[in-house]
Write a structure and sequence with these properties.
The chain is of the alpha/beta class. The chain is built from 15 helices and eleven strands. Bound molecules: nicotinamide-adenine-dinucleotide and zinc ion.
Length: 398
């Protein structure tokens, strides 16, 4: 059969740059000014800045500092309006209205494709702002300044933007690399302990699938990390961000056209658990449970040795993370565990056949195309038992 056709390949190269700098809004810090300044010296770069409400409240000096920064650099930069303060956390992804509001601001202040939308906040806010920026005018430049451990080491340095819809995580979204990401470690100072900690999980994840040596470093530094020792946290963020970027750039599938998604190790149940828990669980907390579940599962199925499985579980616990949540055992109206719905949702999100990343060893992942639901439930039971024992020990020691 001959089909008349014209076939070409469109090649687009996207630079992906993540800068590390402390005290970003100190007027003498030129990092942001250099990122935004146009090569054309006659042109002033316009920016609309969106700020996470919890961060603004916890660091009241931040809004005045941002305003002063743009004033100090007014010959090259202009802030089109005072920082737009928007709620952070999952709530901002659970409603379309924040994206629509941002489109209104982008239109009102004439943010064009040479101007910038800057998002300063946690991963949820960055996901929402990224979606608004990459859809207005088919994409205006967006700069991310992540302010949680998780977003500095994982979500903020990637290429995905989204909000939730139809009760499903990240249903509406785009793949579009940010213009730049700037990580300022000092911005993490005001985080709640749980938000400092939950980002550690993504480092455990990426080390378990890509870098056994990094996993061993994390084991060695677990105590320092548990105490939020700044040097250990900086090392974790730097390496974890680098491994994520390397995976996106070198993994051969930056926009996830295939069915496999190794960076989502432990995520099929995590995304569902976040939703079933009404977002009581943070993303990182749910992923810790998801990794624990798939680790116990791989061990029970005979893929992963007990010694290696214990190391993964012990590291997560050593970092202060829980490995079980009661929501894992919640049943739907047909008495089916709700969490299992996450398997089909995960498959559907990617398309094609089910592909779940499991471990054969630390640093040695493989893709499983079938999951044994009985064994999943037995694994949940095992984690529940471990959890009950740990609780009993805590109660006995009080
Ligand atoms: N795009 C991706 O590739 C990708 C990858 C992983 C996760 N994610 C998404 O990231 C989100 C989770 O992000 P997160 O873990 O950063 O949590 P988050 O954005 O929900 O933030 C947690 C809380 O901390 C507050 N906060 C943020 N920075 C603060 C600071 N410096 N001081 C005080 N409070 C601060 C927020 O307002 C929020 O209440 C989830 O929606 C998840 O799906 C996206
Ligand atoms: Zn994640």
């Amino acid at each position: 059969l001959h089909i008349d056709s014209i076939q070409r390949t469109i090649q687009v190269s996207w630079p992906l740059r993540v800068l590390f700098s402390d005290n970003l809004f100190d007027p003498s810090n030129l990092t942001l000014a250099r990122v935004l300044a146009s090569d054309d010296l006659r042109r002033t770069s316009k920016a609309l800045l969106v700020l996470d409400q919890a961060l603004a409240a916890a660091q009241p000096d931040l809004v005045p500092a941002i305003t002063a920064y743009f004033q100090a650099h007014e010959s090259r930069l202009s802030l089109v309006r005072p920082p737009l303060v928007v709620p952070g956390g999952e709530a901002v992804k659970n409603s379309w209205s924040y994206v629509a509001d941002l489109h209104v601001e982008i239109d009102r202040f004439h943010i064009d494709r040479q101007s910038y939308v800057i998002a300063v906040g946690g991963g949820a806010l960055l996901d929402m702002v990224g979606l608004a920026a990459t859809t207005a005018h088919r994409g205006v430049r967006h700069v991310r300044v992540p302010t949680t451990t998780l977003s500095q080491c994982d979500s903020g340095v990637g290429v995905k933007n989204s909000v939730n819809a139809f009760g499903k995580k990240n249903f509406i979204g785009t793949f579009c690399p940010p213009f730049a990401v700037i990580n300022d470690f000092e911005l993490l100072a005001s985080l709640q302990p749980r938000d400092k900690r939950s980002g550690f999980v993504e480092a455990v994840k990426v080390s378990a699938i890509r870098d056994r040596r990094f996993f061993e470093t994390l084991e060695g530094e677990a105590e320092a990390l548990r105490d939020f020792e700044p040097g250990a946290m900086r090392r974790l963020i730097r390496r974890c961000a680098e491994l994520h970027i390397d995976h996106i750039v070198e993994g051969g599938d930056p926009f996830e056209a295939g069915s496999a998604r190794p960076l989502d190790f432990g995520h099929w149940s995590a995304h569902k658990l976040e939703q079933i828990s009404g977002f009581r669980l943070r993303h990182g907390e749910a992923v810790a449970i998801g990794i624990a579940l798939d680790t116990v599962y791989a061990n029970r199925k005979g893929y992963l040795s007990s010694a290696e499985a214990d190391r993964v579980l012990n590291l997560l616990q050593g970092l202060g993370l829980e490995l079980y949540a009661p929501e894992m055992s919640l049943a739907d109206d047909r008495s089916q565990p709700m969490m299992l719905g996450g398997l089909e949702e995960f498959r559907e999100h990617l398309g094609g056949q089910l592909s779940i990343t499991l471990l054969r060893g630390i640093g040695t992942p493989f893709e499983a195309h079938e999951m044994d639901t009985r064994c999943i439930l037995q694994s949940v039971g095992e984690l529940q038992q471990r959890y009950a024992q740990a609780q009993a020990r805590t109660e006995a020691s009080v």
